[in-house]
Structures are given as structure tokens and as C-alpha cells.
Specification:
The structure holds two protein chains of two kinds. Chain A is built from eight helices and seven strands, in the order H-E-E-E-E-H-H-H-H-E-H-H-H-E-E. In chain A, the strands form three sheets. In chain A, strands 1-4-7 form a three-stranded antiparallel β-sheet, with helices on one face. Chain A is α+β, with helices and mostly antiparallel strands. In chain A, 27% of the residues lie in helices and 8% in strands. Chain B is of the alpha/beta class. In chain B, the strands form five sheets. In chain B, strands 1, 2, 3, 5, 7 and 11 form a six-stranded mixed β-sheet that branches. Chain B is elongated and about 100 Å long. The two termini of chain B are 59 Å apart. The chains are: A alpha+beta, B alpha/beta. The interface between A and B is large, with 44 and 40 residues.
Chain lengths: 261, 498
């Protein structure tokens, strides 16, 4: 009877067991009013962000491999084409093994669908853009370093390096003010509302919602135009459909504060 | 009467227009190509063709087509680390692996099926806005492509001309600053006149965190870009892209055509080829042209077609004549022209001799005299020596080194009865000039000598002493004291130099 209970618990919470992964949803981040590069609407310039928890480290290949072994429908050889493109986990040595060198590195080549399913299996979700942006606005010492030119340039330096060459281990970069790591200088990250940040890139939709894509349009819609680091995040996310994968796109999970733990 | 006058004026205007308007091909300048309304030659004919894309400085061959075709263009976006200057690397974002991107050549009326492929190794999404496209965004939204994906869109090339293409993904400035631009040539239906050589050159400005030529891998500097404070201004994306072994090469007697673009992102180019004159410039990449041009302006996001003929062998230097960019930021490219010398057109250096300016031939003598005068030890010899130097710098232009003057124009000083008759008058003339008729040695003169009041008392004394003791004159000394007295006693003419 006890054994059966344990099994049940494991089945329900395969990733929640303490110690399953480092860099989990350890720290609550206090929300509040936040000036985003993407205001909620032309009239509302300041986003209201409720408090949330965020993985302090990116999800690693080893983390994701455990998930895939449990949820075989997310193996690269079994996943539905609708949910993942041909690049999905293509860099792994097999459908369930990333290979000896990749385990600690952040997982990339995952679709939004797969990332969402992973977080859901942990009882969590992907962070929303405003949550991610709020957490990523912090330097090591202050919660909002976005007006610090030196900090900005440091972030931009990553964009000035090509995507070739290996990634550092997940959680290897220094913690920021909130105790969160890897937000800059490692990979792009999926967010829950990636699909609604800019409407689809269907070429027929040449009207207002699509303005962000053309010359000069940034001048209309985006705030903090000098915040290139964030503009590029948005450009990257808006170029990706939910089934796409990229060798520089990873993710982490989030929850509402009080949702669990 | 008034009506007649207007008619005459109108006729004259027509006549003028007629004269100035016909170019060499005999086409009146007033005519137009009709623009996009005359650019649709109907649906594509025949099998689709794949466009030949070339890396700079090469240009694809002429299309040679006489009917509209379906042209498939496949362009790959690759992010690459390359050398921007000796020992300095930079991560360029490129169309086709090069800066500028691959050259695309189609014919007006062609239907272009464009495939934009973003390499799986790319970090960024990219797209393309071709200025030769008629349609919103120039293809930007339709070609927005994530890494490891490809997009396709189709356009009809309605306008002939030379057009820039570039990435238009936010932040646009950064994508352009990283090298994402190139040229597309849309040939007129009849094609371009054949030439001996065609080249593809494109200027761009670059912004790095490190200073110009600071070694190592350099990151993009966003603030410098916003401030338009370029670290590098380059032709074809690197300081050595078109110099040394990679210089453009031609021979004498060739008709050269260059397709020159300016990707920016910020700077406008004052494009100039040192030692050549552009016989023909299709400014802004348009249809009409200017002839015999030294320097032509290329806007950021614009292009120009220049043509010239090589006559004299040697190295010709392409520069942005906003010249600090050329010599301090890298905007230099070389065209090497080989062939036989043409001394009848350009001699090369024909001599190199010592040159001493009259005014500076022996300033030491003047200085010596001035010091001696101040200490009261001035000798006549010192005065003569200093006077000779000053005379050659100031007086000999008219009175000649020989003191003979010029017959009937400038009176002589040698054995001059007029000079020798009255030393005080001579001082006055030196100080205040002389105009009107005078008779010297029996000859009448009527010209103007300006006042020499810029000379000080010592200098005038020395000049006059030199004159009195040269060319057979019978000697004598003028002292500074005498000059001082005359100067004090003459009312200086209004407006005379001090």
C-alpha cells in the first residue's frame, strides 16, 4: 500500500522531487508596476506584474532528457510534426540521450510546445514576457539596471558573438539581484506569450499590428528604443513560430507565487 | 506687343531645351522611362532561371534576356566572424557570407521568386527589404525568417535601376551596421551597354567598442552607432578588402563600370576616385546621368553607377572624400591599372629641384641687420645684405632683380635719376607708394606703386641702402632714423595698410 502511494506520487510529480534539478523555482520575485519595452497597449504604458517564481537556472539537456524519457510523446522520433519542427532535439545523440558533453548545458532546439509541456509536467509554466523582462532588468546589484550604459553594453556584447561554439553549463553565470542566473549572455528564452507579442508574420497582414518588422516602425511601437538587447529578444521571439526550434533558443519555467511549494 | 514678346520668349525657351536636352544616345532628356507603369512586360516566359549571385567585387554577367523571365534567387543569411582590420575581428551578419551581400542581377519585368534562408547557426532572425521591390516593406515582412528556416516571396521588378537591399529586422540599425546590405541591379529591357569591366563596391560604417584598429574581437557599440560616431568607414567590409593583393585590377584603354552602393547605416558618402574623372555618373542609381564628375554623393541606402575610361597606368584610390574617413577610418580601395605609360597624357615627375621662396631666401641677413640696428652696430654692408633679401621679396616683382624695371611700365632703379636725385622723396615713395606720371631717365611712366608701409623703418632703410649701392648706383646710406622722420611727417593715406 505504501509502495503504491509512492508510485502514485512519483507519477504525479515526476520533476518535483527535491533535488531533481538545481536552479529550480527557489526565489519569489516581487512584482509591481514595470515599464516594459512592450507596453501592454498604446494607452497603458506601465505593465502590472504580479509576483512570481522563476527558475534560477536554465533548463538543461539532462533535465529535459528526464522529461522526454517519462513523456515519450516528446521524444524527437515520436513528437507530432505540428508541435516541433525538424530541428527539434536534433543535436542529441539519440532520442532520449543528449550525449555525454551536453548534459549540463542549457537545452536548446526545443519548440515552444515542448517547453510548455515540460513546465506543465513540473506543475509550472513558461514565464510571461513581462515577468522575464522584469527579472532580466536586474544587474548583480540593482533590480533595474536598464539605464546603466555599461550594463547594457555588456549584454550587447553577447549579440556581437556568433552562435557557433559551445554553451556554458546551465546556472554557471553569476546570479543577478534576484538570485536568477543565465538571463543574459547564454541563449534566447521562450516565454509563455511569445505568440502574442507581435501578431503572426503572415505577409498578408501588412497593417498596424505588424509594424514592428519594418524600417522605422520601432519608432512607433517600442519603448526604450535604445534598449537594443530587449528589442532583439522581441525580434527573435516574434520570428519563431511555436513549433520552431533554434540552437540558441532555450527556456526556464515560472509559477505564480503561492501556486506551489 | 506683349503677346509677341511672350511668344518669342517661349520659342527661345523651347530652343534652349532642345539644345541642352539631347544626350549622346539621341534621347531627349525630357523623356522618361515611364517608371513602374511601363515596367510590366507581362507574365514570365520560358523555364525559370536561377539568378547568378556573385560575391563582391564581382558582378554577375548581363542577363542577356529580351523577354520577362521567372528568376529564382536563393540568398542565405550567415553570421560570420571575419577580419575587419589587421588583427581585429568582428561578427558580421551577412547576405551570402560577404559584406556587402551577394550581387543580384535581373531584368526589368522579371518575376523574382526570392528565397531567404537563415542559416541554422544564426543567432538572430533576419529579413530583407529590397529597394527594388514594389510592395509594402520591400519584402521585409514576407521574408522575416527565424534561424534554421527559410522564407519565400515573389515580386515583379517594375523599375529599372541599381537598388540597395538590406535587413530590416529590429533593431534595424544594428542589423545594417553589422553588414546586412547589398545591391540588386534591375537592367533596363535593352540591357546595359557592354563595357570591359564591371565592379561591385559598397561603403559602410562600423561601430566597435574598441578604438580604430584596437586588436582582438570587437563588439558592436550601440551608443557610438546612435551618436553616428563611426569607428570604421569601409569599402566592402574590411580595411584590406580592396587593397594589396585584393586590389581591383584593370588595364589601360578599358571602359570600366562600377556599381557603388552605400549601406550606411549612418554616413553619406562623398565618393571619389583619385586620379580619374567619372565620364558618366548615374547618380542615385537612376536612369539619367551626369558627365565629367569628380565626386558624387551616395546617400546611405542609395547607390550610383559610375563609368570611366582608363588611360594612364598606375594605382587609383577610391575614397570617401569626407577625407578623415579615408585616412583615419579605412575608407580606401585601390584600382590597379596596368599598361603602357602615356607621357603625352600624364608625364610623371619631370624634375625635383631645390626651391627657395624669394621671401625666405635668406632671412638670416634680415635678422642680423635688425639685431645690429637695435644694438647700434649696424654697418652699411649689413644693410645692403638685408636690403637685398627684402628687395627680392617685395620690390623685384616690378623693379626686377636687375633694378632695370620693365620698359614703359615699371621705372628702373638702376642709375635712376629720379631715385638718386632725392633720397627723402625715395623714402616717402617706399612708405606711401606713388601713382601718376613720372619721368625717369627721360622716359614717362604712369602706373601705381602701392604703399609699403607694412615694412618697418629698419627694413625700408635697408632696402633703399641696397638700391643706392647696387646696379652701378653711386652709393649712400639711408638710416632707420631718416625713415622714422619721414613716416612721422607724412599723413598716411586713408585706408592704407598700417
Amino acid at each position: 500500500m505504501i509502495r503504491a502511494c509512492t508510485l502514485l506520487a512519483l507519477a504525479l510529480l515526476p520533476f518535483n522531487a527535491p533535488g531533481a534539478r538545481a536552479g529550480g523555482l527557489d526565489v519569489p520575485i516581487t512584482g509591481g508596476r514595470f515599464e516594459s519595452v512592450l507596453p501592454p497597449s498604446p494607452q497603458v504604458k506601465v505593465a502590472a506584474v504580479p509576483s512570481f517564481r522563476l527558475d534560477t537556472a536554465l533548463v538543461s539537456n539532462a533535465d529535459f532528457a528526464r522529461f522526454v524519457r517519462k513523456h515519450a510523446e516528446w521524444r524527437r522520433d515520436r513528437v507530432a510534426g505540428l508541435f516541433a519542427d525538424e530541428g527539434y532535439l536534433r543535436h542529441w545523440t539519440s532520442a532520449t540521450e543528449p550525449g555525454p558533453d551536453l548534459g549540463r548545458q542549457p537545452v536548446t532546439q526545443v519548440s515552444w510546445f515542448a517547453a510548455s509541456a515540460y513546465c506543465e509536467a513540473r506543475g509550472a509554466r513558461l514565464p510571461r514576457w513581462h515577468e522575464w523582462e522584469l527579472a532580466a532588468a536586474a544587474s548583480a546589484t540593482v533590480p533595474d539596471a536598464r539605464n546603466d550604459p555599461a550594463w547594457r553594453q555588456q549584454i550587447l556584447d553577447w549579440y556581437s558573438k556568433s552562435a557557433r561554439g559551445g554553451l556554458p553549463a546551465a546556472g554557471a553565470s553569476p546570479a543577478n539581484y534576484f538570485g536568477v542566473r543565465d538571463l543574459h549572455g547564454v541563449v534566447w528564452e521562450w516565454v509563455e506569450d511569445a505568440g502574442s507579442m507581435l501578431v503572426s508574420d503572415d505577409s498578408r497582414e501588412q497593417g498596424d499590428p505588424n509594424r514592428n518588422r519594418f524600417c522605422g516602425s520601432g519608432a512607433i511601437d517600442l519603448e526604450q528604443k535604445e534598449n537594443y538587447a530587449m528589442l532583439m529578444r522581441i525580434a527573435m521571439l516574434s520570428s519563431m513560430k511555436a513549433s520552431y526550434s533554434s540552437n540558441s533558443m532555450g527556456f526556464r519555467c515560472a509559477t505564480d507565487v503561492g501556486a506551489r511549494r | 506687343m506683349t503677346k509677341n514678346m511672350w511668344a518669342t520668349l517661349a520659342a527661345a525657351a523651347l530652343l534652349l531645351t532642345g539644345c541642352g536636352a539631347s544626350d549622346k544616345a539621341g534621347t531627349p532628356a525630357a523623356s522618361t522611362t515611364g517608371g513602374s507603369r511601363q515596367g510590366d512586360f507581362g507574365p514570365p516566359q520560358g523555364e525559370p532561371v536561377h539568378a547568378v549571385l556573385t560575391s563582391p567585387p564581382e558582378v554577375p554577367p548581363a542577363t542577356g534576356r529580351h523577354a520577362p523571365a521567372k528568376v529564382i534567387v536563393e540568398l542565405e543569411v550567415i553570421e560570420v566572424d571575419k577580419q575587419i582590420a589587421e588583427g581585429v575581428t568582428y561578427t558580421f551578419w551577412t547576405f551570402g557570407g560577404t559584406v556587402p551581400g551577394s550581387f543580384i542581377r535581373v531584368r526589368q519585368g522579371d518575376t523574382v521568386e526570392f528565397h531567404l534562408k537563415n542559416h541554422p547557426g544564426s543567432k538572430m532572425p533576419h529579413n530583407i527589404d529590397l529597394h527594388g521591390v514594389t510592395g509594402p516593406g520591400g519584402g521585409a515582412a514576407s521574408s522575416f525568417t527565424a534561424p534554421g528556416h527559410q522564407s519565400k516571396f515573389t515580386f515583379k521588378a517594375l523599375n529599372q535601376g541599381l537598388y540597395v537591399y538590406h535587413c530590416a529586422t529590429a533593431p534595424v540599425g544594428m542589423h545594417v551596421a553589422n553588414g546586412m546590405y547589398g545591391l540588386i541591379l534591375i537592367e533596363p529591357p535593352e540591357g546595359l551597354t557592354p563595357v570591359d569591366k564591371e565592379f561591385y563596391v559598397m561603403q559602410g560604417d562600423f561601430y566597435t567598442v574598441g578604438k580604430y584598429r584596437e586588436k582582438g574581437h570587437q563588439a558592436f557599440d550601440m551608443q557610438k552607432a546612435i551618436d553616428e560616431n563611426a569607428t570604421y568607414v569601409l569599402f566592402n567590409g574590411a580595411e584590406s578588402a580592396l587593397t594589396g593583393p585584393r586590389a581591383l585590377k584593370a588595364t589601360t584603354g578599358q571602359h570600366i563600370r562600377m556599381f557603388v552602393g552605400n549601406g550606411g547605416p549612418n554616413l553619406v558618402s562623398s565618393f571619389h576616385l583619385i586620379g580619374e574623372i567619372f565620364d558618366k555618373v548615374q547618380y542615385e542609381g537612376g536612369t539619367h546621368f551626369q558627365e565629367n564628375v569628380q565626386t558624387t554623393l551616395i546617400p546611405a541606402g542609395g547607390a550610383v553607377t559610375v563609368e570611366f575610361h582608363t588611360e594612364v597606368p598606375g594605382n587609383y584610390v577610391l575614397v570617401d572624400h569626407s577625407i578623415f574617413r579615408a585616412f583615419n577610418k579605412g575608407a580606401i580601395a585601390i584600382l590597379e591599372v596596368s599598361g603602357d605609360e602615356r607621357p603625352e597624357i600624364y608625364s610623371g615627375k619631370q624634375g625635383d629641384e631645390v626651391y627657395l621662396s624669394d621671401k625666405l631666401s635668406n632671412p638670416a641677413a634680415v635678422e642680423t641687420a635688425a639685431l645690429a640696428s637695435a644694438s647700434g652696430t649696424l654697418t652699411k654692408e649689413q644693410q645692403v645684405k638685408a636690403g637685398e633679401v627684402l628687395f627680392k621679396g617685395t620690390c623685384s616683382a616690378c623693379h626686377q632683380d636687375t633694378g632695370e624695371g620693365i620698359a614703359n611700365v615699371f621705372p628702373p632703379l638702376a642709375k635712376s635719376d629720379y631715385l638718386l636725385a632725392d633720397r627723402k622723396r625715395a623714402i616717402g615713395i617706399a612708405l606711401n607708394g606713388l601713382s601718376g606720371p613720372v619721368t625717369v631717365n627721360g622716359t614717362n611712366y604712369n602706373s601705381v606703386m602701392p604703399p609699403m608701409s607694412q615694412l618697418n623703418d629698419d627694413e625700408i632703410a635697408n632696402i633703399l641702402t641696397y638700391a643706392l649701392n647696387s646696379w652701378g648706383n653711386d652709393g649712400g646710406v639711408v638710416t632707420a632714423k631718416e625713415v622714422e622722420q619721414v613716416r612721422a611727417n607724412t599723413k598716411r593715406p586713408e585706408g592704407a595698410a598700417h
